[in-house]
Write the structure tokens for this entry.
Amino acid sequence: MGKRTNLFLLLGGGLTALMVGLALLGTFWTPYSPTAMGAGEKFAPPSLAHLLGTDNFGRDVFSRVLQGMGASLLIAACVVAIGCLAGTLVGCLCGYFGGPADYLLTRLCDAVTAFPSVLLALVIVSLAGRGTAQIVVALGILFIPSFARLVRGETARHRQANYIQSARLMGVSHGRILTAHILPNLWGVLGPGVVIGFNNAVLSEASMSFLGLGVQPPFPSLGSMLSDSQTYLQRAPWYALSAGMAIALLILGFSLLAEGLQRRRRA
Amino acid sequence: MKSLLKKCAALIITLFLVSALAFLAFSLIPADPATSLLGSEATPEAKAALRAELGLDRPLLVRYWEWLTGFLRGDLGNSYLYRMGVGEMLAGKLTVTALLTAESFLFTLLLALPLGILAGSVKNPWLDAACTVLDQAAMSVPPFFLGILACYVLGYGLRLFVPGAYVSPEEDLWGCLGYLVFPALSIAIPRAAMAVKLLRSSILTELGRDYVRTARSRGASERDILLRQVLRNAILPVITFLAVSLAEIMTMSILIEQVFSIPGVGRLLLSSISNRDYPVVLAIVTLLSAWIVAVNFLADLLTRLADPRVRLG
Amino acid sequence: MLLEVNDLTVRFPGASRPAVEGAAFSLERGEILGLVGESGSGKSVTALCLGGLLLPGAKVSGSIRLEGRELLQCTEKELRALRGRETALVFQEPMASFNPVLPVGKQVEEALRVHTRLSSRERRERALAAMSAAELPEPETLYRRYPHELSGGQLQRAMLAAAVISEPKLLLSDEITTALDATVQVQILDLLARLARERNMAVLFISHDLRLVRKLCPRALVMKDGRIVEEGPVEDLFRAPREDYTRRLIAAIPTRERR
């Protein structure tokens, strides 16, 4: 068992570190300018000069993938930050104080999570218009319920614990109990939760961009690159393959890491 | 029976709330449909005339009531852009998307159940870890990328099908289902991988239960125990997951229709969003929501039927 | 002699001492033998070994002869043919021992389904007969019921019915009354004694409770830390316990029942 835990953490952590490292590199330095047309010939196959070939405008695919990964991760980070912060706040208050507000919010969260996030994001974007900011806000809001549920359950469990009860009797304020006693106990569930959040956020953003409703050109995004590349699938398969694999590997890294974290928590 | 009635009532209330929310949201949008249809240079008179024609000058509640009663009678509203009934526009497309959803669901079942049972009966820890990593990888490939891969490798490479050569079901139902095989698999594989993961861990939990020891003490074979005793229990959470998957699969078909150029509901939804044709978007979103709520109800019902402990509750 | 156990030793990997060490005893046809000890003394492991259940990872040595046949030399397939036909096991938690999603009757007839080619109608009739023999009221109704609809006492009766349905020669009863109320305990004990007598079935009655062993078994073993520390007629154990441990087990019984 111990060996297998390490395997998932190792694989997931290694893959995630590699992808995040490449994405960070991409935000500061790329071999070519990702938006410069004619950096090479049109549809040049992968070579030493262009590791992943070039696209229909002669742009370097490797440079575009690097920057696209950075964009994906940045958007995912913002989405998870909104979802996690707001969700933790809502979950903590609901789980700790209970009452009718808790009941209503829990029901609302259940209802929202029943709907596929891409569908809800589509609705929000069709109302608010397309664009990066809209996508971040839309997905961020949609990610609140899953975090709120997670935190609510954990908080409600700890509220019953003896040490919290005795702290209450000693006259410690609610705010102090929440920040000093309950919050530190949430890391265990929030860790895997955040990683799964990244996993879902990358997938949702890629889906929306693929539909042309997320990040807008000429800014490179993995989803819109994949969508563009479809037209040239026969002439330049490396274009689609690079963008798609980048999305898949990002998601795989996060999902293996989440699996590893959950197994370690259970063990 | 009583709790079932309660569930039904809750179902109807949920549907009502969802429809009201959707209608409200699409009525309060900032952009004025008259402006977007006629362009910003149109005279105020022309805009007002158009608004009157579209019925936008009347109070919100009246419009909601008319829309809702119309919807229940089967009148899904009128498209701003094409000036025709949404029902008419949807008719053929709904069939295609329903076929794609059904086929994807069928493949999900056919893949998930045998593979999940297989994954649950692997004893060697290294083989088990390898299976789990492979499963995780299958879960991680987005369906639309899987679809593109299928087009390239199976379509252009092996010439198993011609990407884009869609056949409509009215023309040739079997030809249509044949064209939908790879789109359906693209949706089904990641979904099935999730179900496999769930079924595997559910089987492992059940194998540790006391009733398994009882069955062993009666001389039942491991195969018999797995298929006759453990599976009946392990499948319960998977049933819920698969039923709820019907909602996710329908949404995924919106993406997959783009990849394989299938003229379904998804393409209509996307073009309507681009064109700000709100009555069409509203109708599709409401229909999809009704589907999702109904699917959740179905999941609940199936679990009740499959688990004697909650059947009477 | 039905069962002869010699030098039975069971060792789990990573454990500091064997779970069972050098156990030796024998059982006649139709005899009811008590096995007493605290929890963790190796009683249940002994029962699982005698029932022919492999313990994953455990090293088992010594000899278990059932009607002259060496169980420790048997393949898993041979053991499977033995389990539920020659030997039957009944465990402590009746609710957990039943599969929650199968009707009780189907589980009572499980051993017949595995070991015979009887039709489902014949199996059903045998199951109903066994359930009547186990004094279950309205067997036809209970046959169709699910485990959660029965009481703990009823479930344990159904377990006994399931155990005796294929007329095994040896019943291994592992703390079968522990999870039940005191009045139900006595009824189950009476039932067990009657079933054993009627079928000339040997019983290894495992319990941590000396009172129950004294009520049911003429002869008993005392087990401590995996070793059999004392053996003899139950009344002798009570009157003149040789081991300190046995004395402490007796002392654990409330005074007014000790006499």
The CA atoms of residues 26 and 190 of chain B lie 33 Å apart. The radius of gyration of chain B is 24 Å. Chain B has 14 helices and no strands.
